[in-house]
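Give me structure tokens for this 387-residue protein.
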Amino acid sequence: MKKIVSIIFILFVSFMVFSVPSNVEAKTLRQMKEELATAKANLSSNQAKMREAQERVKKYRNEINASTVEIEKCQNEIEEARIKIQELEVEIKEKQKEIDELLRFLQVSKGENVYLEYVFGATSFTDFIYRTAIVEQLSDYNDKLIDEMYDLIEQNKQLQKELEAKIQELEKKIEQLKKDLAKVNLTIDDLYDDQKDLNAEIKAYEVEVKFYEDYGCKLDQEISDCLNVPYANGFVRPTDYGYISSNYGWRSLNLSGSNFHSGIDIALPEGNKVYPSAPGYVAKKVIKSSCGGNMLYIQHSVNGKKYTTVYMHLKSFNVNVGDTVFLTTVIAYSGGGASTRGYDRCTTGAHLHFGMFNGWTSSKSNLINPRDKVNFPAIYNRYYSRW
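Here you go.
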């Protein structure tokens, strides 16, 4: 039985592999170099944005530090005002006691007017004027002194209110600065991820361009004329078994809206063999991208049309750029779990992300649903063969 299955498999592989037809889409080495130049320009722009964002971070942090120092200064001033109020209140009480003692003759005691006794006890008119003036001056002076102290207390209380209001404003400012800082930090994180991805893309382009140059492809020669890409009449599944955990297209995320999923996720343990979905040519290898991890791009010619397949979250590679691969070629081993999570922030667990493009390109505008070309089971179902 196994022998019969092997013979059928060999016949199937033989049926799928032919020479490259002459009507495939054109792409030249010059275009590849232009794409490389564009990627480098994007990297340069990314680096400029990164520097600008870092300057904003520096500015926000300096403002936060300055506001924190100002808050501390206000808090010290509030404490000084509070102490001053306490001192003035004690002084007022003491002064009031003095006034009570010095001016007790202003009070009526035992039905007699002590004030009149003091004034009319003068021995002369001059003494009378003097005594009257003393009483009035003492009373006016102490009243004025107490009024000034109460004014100082009110001023200090008002200062406390103003300082507390200022602290609240500064705290609001710091809170807003922290939010702005968090946004910039997120921007920096995104820019850093983009930078890593661009560096990986540039390196992949450089390897690809060098291969074409070493292969002898001329600058304006179509790559399809320069290379011998196997011809096939269809696609198969890229693993021996798996569980369809996510489809191509828009999908909802828990409490955070939705996003567009650019391929089909096949859940399976790390270290499983990954095969090309059709015979083809290894066009690009991306190492440790921040979103997608290790990735392989393979170019195909299927029924006279050009396609590109991508395999993401790989644990390791088994082929290089320029290799011709067939259905039985092990191109990589699946990852997406603990082995890749350190650098691949987009992985959600051990799985293979399988994507497909029209043409020999990795442009998002050329993405197509792999289900249109590959016989995958419905979502949340398993398969146990590549056909």
